[in-house]
Amino acid sequence: MMAADNNNGERNQAGALGPERLLAYTVGREFRRMAMRLEVRGGGLRDQLDRASASVLLNCAEAVGRSGRRDQARLFAIARGSAYECLAILDLLESEEGQREVLGQARRLLRRFLGALAGLVLRNRG
Q1: pLDDT in tens, 80-95
Q2: pTM, entire model
Q3: Which of 4, 41, 96, 110 is the most buried (most CB within 10 A)?
Q4: Angle, helices 100-124/23-37, rounded to nearest 10 degrees
């Protein structure tokens, strides 16, 4: 089934339930999968990337479950902050040999996530 993206970060797809209907969520999930495959030396940075990439996804999902627009906007804003944290971690990993291509792909996914999320944050600011 083809999905059509609209300007506020939502994805219109037949049969999609909960957070899966959001483009931001599906892109965030794709980034999370990629982040889990990245080779990260040093347990602290690995842990930070794991937590931040999970936060991107979890806060989007929680926002969908909330009914108040201000509450939703707050959770989407937290997800946005976690995405920026992930971008900073990717910058720190740039010195890792052999990962430049995958780091570039991860950055593109995060930029796409942030673009999709921007409409959701603006729409839900009450």
Answers
A1: 999 999 999 999 998 7
A2: 0.82
A3: 110
A4: 150
